[in-house]
Write a structure and sequence with these properties.
There is one protein chain. A 6-stranded mixed β-sheet has the order 2-1-6-5-4-3. 21% of the residues are buried. Strand 1 and strand 2 form a beta hairpin. Helices cover 34% and strands 43% of the residues. The chain is an alpha+beta fold and 136 residues long. The chain has a single domain, classed as Nuclear Transport Factor 2, Chain: A (Roll).
Length: 136
């Protein structure tokens, strides 16, 4: 059985690998880190604030989000980890028509047996993110 410190280190590594797979647009690599029953929750009051269940639905959700923007980049700022999971803090910049977004987001990951079982995306400034993603 792994110690608390070993689990914390492993979860930080899983979070970084998940981040890299997402940043590289590598859906196959991303799937390696997701439990078959993964729950993905994007918080807010906007069209992409959804609860998504399962890896296939999650890949579709990512594709939909990408289709709604003209340009988007995200920069990893920090990874915090514990024996139960990890939190990725990152900065997103996006453009959609005349709208732009520049803000920090927290991605909280619950990790069990080296697989992400739940993820919660929580923008630091929720109102700003909601305004950007609102379709007009």
């Amino acid at each position: 059985m792994r110690t608390s410190q070993e689990l914390q280190q492993t979860n930080a590594e899983i979070a970084r690998l998940l981040w890299n797979a997402t940043a590289d647009g590598d859906g196959g690599a991303l799937l390696e880190f997701l439990a078959p029953n993964v729950e993905w929750h994007s918080h807010g009051q906007n069209p992409i604030a959804k609860h998504v269940y399962g890896p296939a639905a999650l890949l579709d959700y990512f594709a939909l989000s990408a289709d709604l923007v003209d340009d988007m980049t995200s920069d990893l700022l920090e990874i915090y980890s514990s024996e139960r999971g990890a939190v990725i803090r990152y900065r997103t910049r996006a453009r959609r028509g005349p709208k732009s977004l520049d803000g920090e987001v927290l991605l909280s990951l619950t990790i069990d047996n080296s697989l992400v079982t739940r993820a919660d995306i929580v923008p630091v400034e929720q109102d700003m993110h909601d305004a950007f993603w609102m379709l007009e």
